[in-house]
Structures are given as C-alpha cells and as structure tokens.
Amino acid sequence: MRIEDMVLVSVDDHVVEPPGMFERHLPEKWHEVAPRLVRRDDGTEVWLYEGKELPNIGLNAVAGRPPEEYGLEPTSLDEMREGCWDIHQRVRDMDANGVVGSMCFPSFPQLCGQLFARSKDKDAGLAVLKAYNDWHIDEWCGSYPGRFIPLGLPPLWDPQAMADEVRRVAAKGCHAVSFSENPEKLKFPSFHSDHWDPFWTACSDEGTIVALHIGSSSQLVVTASDAPIDVLLSLQPVNILQAAADLLWSPVLRKFPDLKFSLSEGGIGWIPYFHDRMDWTYERQSPWTGQDFGGRLPSQVFREQVVVCFIDDPAGMKLRHDVGIDRITWEVDYPHSDSTWPTSPERLWKSLDGVPDDEIDKITHLNAMRHFRFDPFAHRLREQCTVEALRAQAADVDVALRSRGVRADRKTKASDLTKRP
Amino acid sequence: MRIEDMVLVSVDDHVVEPPGMFERHLPEKWHEVAPRLVRRDDGTEVWLYEGKELPNIGLNAVAGRPPEEYGLEPTSLDEMREGCWDIHQRVRDMDANGVVGSMCFPSFPQLCGQLFARSKDKDAGLAVLKAYNDWHIDEWCGSYPGRFIPLGLPPLWDPQAMADEVRRVAAKGCHAVSFSENPEKLKFPSFHSDHWDPFWTACSDEGTIVALHIGSSSQLVVTASDAPIDVLLSLQPVNILQAAADLLWSPVLRKFPDLKFSLSEGGIGWIPYFHDRMDWTYERQSPWTGQDFGGRLPSQVFREQVVVCFIDDPAGMKLRHDVGIDRITWEVDYPHSDSTWPTSPERLWKSLDGVPDDEIDKITHLNAMRHFRFDPFAHRLREQCTVEALRAQAADVDVALRSRGVRADRKTKASDLTKRP
Fold it and tell me: For A409, B315, B347, B367, which has the most beta carbons within 10 A of its beta carbon?
C-alpha cells in the first residue's frame, strides 16, 4: 500500500455552526427562542440563547491559521477558514486532506448539548435540540451523502426523551449519539446509577454508539491556578482515561452487553497500561470490593464494548495489538488546534510504518465503518474514496496558512479557559 | 540469570510508626507535644497530635491478610503483621521476599509530612518533624545498615527550613526527600511559582532526589460521589500522571538541571504515551503558549531528570526502551494492598520474560542504587544480596495469609476514603 491508497475516515471533527441554521428546522412557534449568531462591539460573534452569550473559542477554529495566532479568546466566523462552518468548503477541505468520511461534534451547544440542558424552558430546549439534530443530519451531513457520520445530541435532562430522540434519529439513519464523559459534573446522576437506563436501552436496541468526547463534562484538568495552558492541553486525554475507568467499574457495560461506546480524542497509547491496571486492581481488590465480571477480565469487557481513536500516537501503534486492532479508529480533529489538517495522511503514514496493509485498512476506515454503521462505498466506488482520488479533485484548494491577526486580549492560562460559562 | 540471582531494591514501601518512636529523638522541652499512639474504645489505635486523631487506614497495612478482609476502616497494630511496624520483623519479611533494600514512606504524618505542616505551633512542628527524621534515619534505617534508603520529610511551611533540613539530613547520609505531587492542593504555592527555590537549590546541591508519591497532595481521584472504590484504586496513577505534566511544564526542571525527581507508585506503562503527548503539545502549541525547552524536547528533559518505578507492568516492560532503561526502578509497596509481598520475585520475573540480564540488573537494583545514592554492596557481598541468599536466611518466616477478622463498619466507597482528615 502507498500513502495515496489509504481510505481515511475521521471519527472526531467539529462543526462551527453557521447562522440561519435553525430557520428550516424549527417549527414556527419556537422561532423566537432559536439561538441567534450576533456580532458584538468588539468584532467577535457569539451565539445568543435565552439571554446568554456563547462564544466560539479561538483555539477551536484554527485550521489554516499560523500557530502563533492560536488563543483562547472568542472569535468570529470571518476570522475562520470557511470550512469551519460552510459545508461545501468543509467537503473541499476534506478532499484536500484525502479524508472521505467525518463525524462532527457541535461547537456552541457544547460537546454533548450541555447548553440545551441548561434551558430554562425545557419544551423550547427540546424543540431547539431536535431542530439542531435535524439540521445536522439532513443539512450538514445530508448535503453530501456518504461523506459524514451523523451524530445526535441527546436531551440530557430527561432519559426517556433521550431514548425517544435516539430512536427518532436512528430512523433517519443516525446511529451515533454524543454523551458526557462524566454526567455528575453536569449535576446529573453518574454512570453508577440506573437513571440512564432508558437511554442505554434505546442505544443498545438501535445499534447506536455512544460517543464520549474529552471535555464533555464541561470540565478540563487544571492542576494549579497558575499552571500554563500547556498543562491543560497536554492532559486532555486524562479526562477520558478517568471516564474509561468510571464506566468500566459501573454497571453499564455489564448490564448492556450490546451497548458500544467511543472515546473521542482520547488517544490510545495509554490503553495497554490501562488494561493492565484495571485487571491488576480486579485481581487484587475484588475479593473485598465485590466487583464481579463473571469469569471475564475488566480489560476484556472494555475491549469488546469500547472503541478508541487517535490523531498521532507512536506508542499506541507499537502496542496496537494490546490496544485491540479491531477497535482502533482515527481522527483529524478539524478545525481544532490538535488537528493534523491538511497533512493528515503524511502524519498518519509515518505512524503506520511497519503496519501490515490489512491492519492499516482496519485502522483507517474499516473499524470506523463497522462501529459507526457508516458506508461511504455505498455512495461512491472504493477507488474514488482514496487519498489520491480525493486530493485529485481538490487540487485547486488553497491550504496555505493564512494570518488573520492577533487580538490584544490573548489568553494563555489554563484558568482562562475553565472560566468559560 | 535465574529468578534466585536477582538483586532487588524496592524504592516504595511504607512504615507504620511504632509507639514510643519519639522518646529518644525529641528534646525534653517538646515531650508534651509529641504525637502519641492511643487506643480508642472501639479497639482501633490512633495517633494523637495537637488534639487531632490520625488513624491507620486498614488498606494501608494489609500484608499477610486475606484480601477478603481489606477495608478502609481504621485499624490497630495488633491487627497488622509485625513487619508493618517492627524493624526486626520488617527485615525478616524483606528477607523472606528476597528484597535487599527498601525506601519507606511514612504513615500517620502522611506521605510528605502534611500533618506536621498543619501544626498550630510551628516551632513544635519543626521539632517533631526533625525527631521523626532522626528516628527514621538513625533507628528505622540505622538498625540494619545497607538495607534501607533513608527518606526525609520536609517542613513544608517554610522553604528555607526545608532547605536547612535537606542539608542537615544529607550530612547524615539521607539523600532522598518526600514532597507533594501537587502542593497547591495543600494550600501552598504550585510548582509554577519560585516559592520553593531554596528547597530545590538545597536538593540540587546535596544530590538529594525528590520523591513524589501518589496521594501526597492529600487528594485522590474521585470521579463521582457514588463511584465504587475500585475506580479510585485503579486510577491512583492518574494522580502522578497529572503531577508529571504539571512539573514538566513548570520552570523547575529547566531552572535546576541537576535536580532529580522520583514518581513513587506511579507505574510506567503510560510513560511512552506521555512522552508522545508532551512532545506533540510542545510542537503544535509552543508557538503561541511561549514554552521554550531550548532545542530539546519536553520528553528529553523528563527522561533525564525524572526517575520512575513500577510494581508489575507488562505494557511498561514491552516499551521499556521508550520509557528509558536507565530510569526504571521497582517497588514492593509493602504493606499496602497493591503489594506483591511475599511473592514479589515470582511476579516480577514473569514481567521480565525476555529482558536481557544487564537490563534486569538496571531495573531491579542498579538504577535505584545510582539515583538514590544507595549501596548495599558496601555492607555485604553482592552474592549475599540475592533473592536466593536472603530467602535462605529467612526459611523460618511464616508468610502464610492470616485472618484477623473483619470489622462491622467496613467501608468500600471512594468517598469514604476521601473524607479522611
């Protein structure tokens, strides 16, 4: 296999929502409450919902900007590359990066729709959330069939409504749903209660995978109040490592053996150690803690029901068979600051040095297709899905870095980011 | 090499302090304030200091007990194996386990002496802390020359006094000092301030390694209020992973290039991924965050100045060269619940399958000897330090599990443990 022959599916990217997105999807009676994108006096744009302002954090929309300009301050659409928010430009950016498929997490509603869960008027909140899902599925993903894995947002405040929404969007072909990596941090019950059982049941029934994205508890790891932002950025995967243990020791996986989870942006190099550590704890401590995995090891349950993904991960590639070759997926993270766009194939290819072709296929697309029920080949021939074929049709896309200036109020402390609403 | 030929040095064990320990080491004028071990009506024993009770947590003194009896409730000396608190029995337990050298962290003063830092009378606190160090160095370690790596406790509330104490105990041959893995959690300045510079300077001057033990911020990872204790137990290394990043992005290592740290009970299997992640963050984010490692990578600085250790770590052994073969040390964790006593050699030997002899020697003792400035061979011939030789002289030690009953008030929730004072 050559680098040009890879078929790439990314299971973690992000959409920056465009203005007017609710117009076609929200019933007339709710038009008044629809979130609106407004421009502030300082030139930034924010979404306005129930009187609250939701900024787009600069660091989350930096594709195509020089790294010197990254920052935590709010930003506006015209400071971003169009592919952040325009579906047609997004597909061209995917082509230029040789990526055939992408799953996009939301921006202003937060990673699993926390914003809507804070709605004062829960009926309005549910209407807006459904309109969001319809826009995401029908308009964003629907504009280019076979190019996007749709991802639903759940109405977190009502497990039965969550189940209903999972079933409603599944009927439209959406088989992935975002959820919080630690619901207790959002003031909901934890994984350890049976509160979420209607939701888990619906996901299990519908073959819908539950995606836990780092930061979806609205909390990031801040070691110290004066820690530089590098600590927070580099420790983001810790968020998911903790969630993985929390989930594994909870009743969820054992109670719903057909339910699958995906750990988004969590990396994979820590997983062999995680397996060892979980099994070690089980072996030594279960006689008094009472945990029972019914003749299996915690790592076996984790392997079978939890899908993982990486951006660039040399240690994880070395130990890929300990991670589990049938559960590793890959991501681009466009347009966030960790993204490898527009040279994702080149970066990935370096990591894949020495990996056999059949394993490359699993890692780059086959695992994602199976676990997320996504089939780009139903829409275009496989040979039209390769890095080479996609890049050929995007030869005119300008991927050069483009400066858009730096604001005076740049913020670089971890505590700046966590003060976000 | 056979299993019997290994020479084993453990850099993380624990002493449960015996009654009367302060008598010989505290000046007359402070005898009134010395911590005392007292028996409570419920049969447990606690240390009493400035009117506060400090229990011995059962889980921290379980060597030789059946795992079914482990628990979080307080315990008493007569419920423990004598080796927990009696130096002569401790050495016999080391012999029975084939271990020639051991570094012991404190129990009731907490891992880096947090208790003494809470002293209302700081003069008394300093006197008690010095007496503790003298007892530890002269009596606990001094009873068996060549068998223990002494470990000092620092008076955390005064960086100049810390420096003085580091120099005082270094003159007595103690070249390791315990410190908090996150001082801000103890309401002191973080690694990112220059507050600790006198302490770092003294350690650097004296060739004293700074040991950061998991839990030395008096905080453990609790994901959710109803999480079972297994989550907390299995996530203990996360504590140290966060501390490692916090330290690495702080000025400390770069400002004091001769200063060495040891991550105690942190495991090693996560370290190759950690290296990748830190370098990735540096490469992508430093243009705007301003971090500068002067032509080196963060992982290089981390490798050179931070020593790591493990109990049993298959993933870490597979990637030992990515971890760094000259910085890996090993631990028994006697008498805590994670300890492999009395079959540590057997457990370790399994992990070492396929590792060449010269690397085994580094991992089992040579690295520990160099980084902790410890030389058992100055006191006995090398051939008397092997697993075989030590076990031969302890053939009469009964290592069978012994039941000591279970209390009615057993506690198994993570939140039970963190409610500790």
Answer: B315
Q: Are B6 and B348 in contact (CB under 8 A)?
A: yes
Chain A contact for B290 (CB, 8 A cutoff): yes
B94: Cα separation from own chain's centroid: 16
Position B414 confidence tier, pLDDT thresholds 50, 70, 90: low
The alpha carbon of residue B397 is apart from the nearest alpha carbon of chain A, in Å, by 23
* Most distant CA pair in chain B, distance: 64
pLDDT single digits (tens) A192-244: 999 999 999 999 999 999 999 999 988 888 899 999 999 999 999 998 999 99
Where does the pLDDT of residue B377 fall: very low under 50, low under 70, confident under 90, or very high at 90 and above?
Answer: very high
Out of A190, A277, A286, the one facing B237 most closely (by C-beta) is: A277
Do residue B322 and residue A318 have CB atoms under 8 angstroms apart?
A: yes
Whether residue A66 and residue B286 make contact (CB cut-off 8 A), yes or no, is: no
Q: What is the pLDDT of residues A73-105, one digit of tens each?
A: 778 898 899 999 999 999 999 999 999 999 999
Decide: pTM greater than 0.90: yes
Beta bridge partners of B10: B102, B330
Question: Which residues does chain B have within 8 Å of residue A227's beta carbon, measured at their own beta carbons?
Answer: 190, 192, 246, 249-250
CB < 8 Å from A in window 209-248 of B: 221, 223-231, 233-235, 237-238, 241-243, 245-246
Q: How far is CA B71 from the centre of its chain?
A: 21
Nearest-CA residue of chain A relative to B410? A288
Q: Which residues contact B28 (CB under 8 A, 6 or more apart)?
A: none
Please give the Cα distance from A291 to B226 (Å, whole number).
Answer: 14
Neighbours of A265 (CB within 10 A): 26
Confidence of residue B417 (pLDDT cuts 50, 70, 90): low
Residue B121: count other Cβ atoms within 10 Å of its Cβ: 12
Measure the CA–CA gap between B416 and B413, rounded to whole angstroms: 5
What are the distances in angstroms from CA A270 to CA A113, A345, B263, B272?
28, 23, 17, 8
User: Nearest-CA residue of chain A relative to B412?
Assistant: A289
Q: pLDDT at residue B420 above 60?
A: no
